[in-house]
Design a protein that fits this description.
This protein is an alpha+beta fold. Helix content is 37%, strand content 27%.
Length: 282
């Protein structure tokens, strides 16, 4: 069922800003489908067709989200992923790779490039990740943004990793909030699981979950995070649904995300560069 979207704007100088953002909680979905969906939503947000959106989801089964510019062979133990049916999803966004399972709240903050998210990359992270800091405070702990890693830490340990991208008139900042975590599985899946952490001996030493600080109710965590976004961005939200256009476009994009040539896009480009670099002169 497709719900007609509410779009409320007010005039601010030369800009039109969205007074209300749409909130969608997809609950558990396929990891490949999630990437297709947040790209699809961004196209319609950037084109002034859909409202700016806060999107929540969790993955149905474990996946690795790979940064757009990364090579699979550098980051991921592919054989282990194949044996255990762990998907490899190349994002449209930059940043590093992250292992995700159902025990993480994943989010995408999708706004217009001409809107309230700053054009400067670090300023955008600071504004949006304020939502995670706000949520942690509501849940009983303090958080701080680590700009060098585009992450949020609490008690000197990472609890939220994030990535950003801009295209088609939209800006996306995606991230995670760890409810719980399978550290042993991540250690087997990623070749360098401590790469994006403070210097530590292992990932468990450098990461923390909400369960570690006594928070186990996911609905409370989601509410705190959504409230955190409203405070950080200075917006209000309403519960919305995907439009038929967003769903149709996501279904079309899904084929790309599942395609070998997209997943291994940068590996293929690197192999081609190496091939041409060793060709003898004509």
């Amino acid at each position: 069922m497709v719900q007609k979207q509410e779009r409320i704007f007010y005039t601010f100088g030369e800009k039109k800003l969205n007074d209300k953002w749409r909130f969608i909680d997809l609950d558990k979905i396929d990891g490949f489908k999630s990437a297709a969906l947040f790209e699809s939503i961004a196209k319609y947000v950037g084109g002034n067709v859909s409202p700016e959106t806060i999107l929540f989801w969790r993955v149905l089964s474990p996946v690795v989200y790979l940064g757009y510019h990364q090579c699979v062979e550098d980051e991921i133990n592919v054989d282990h992923c194949r044996r255990h049916d762990i998907g490899i999803v190349r994002r449209i966004l930059g940043g590093g790779c992250g292992f995700c399972d159902e025990n993480q709240i994943l989010f995408s903050c999708i706004g217009k490039e001409s809107g309230i998210i700053p054009p400067d990359i670090q300023a955008a992270y600071t504004k949006v990740l304020g939502a995670v800091v706000n949520a942690l405070r509501t849940l009983g702990t303090e958080g701080e943004i680590e700009p060098a890693r585009n992450a949020v830490y609490t008690k000197r340990r990472k609890i939220s990793g994030n990535a950003q991208g801009r295209f088609d008139g939209a800006v996306l900042i995606n991230g995670s909030l760890l409810m719980d975590f399978d550290f042993e599985l991540m250690d087997r899946v990623l070749k360098n699981p401590t790469k994006n952490l403070y210097p530590v001996a292992n990932a468990r030493e450098g990461m923390i979950t909400l369960k570690d600080i006594g928070v186990t109710d996911i609905d409370s965590a989601k509410k705190a995070l959504l409230d955190g976004f409203e405070k950080a961005l200075g917006i209000t939200t309403y519960e919305g649904m995907l439009t038929q256009n967003e769903t149709n476009t996501a279904n079309q994009l899904l084929e790309k995300y599942q395609c070998h040539d997209w997943i291994y896009r940068m590996d293929i480009k690197r192999a081609q560069r190496k091939k041409f670099s060793v060709l003898p002169p004509q």
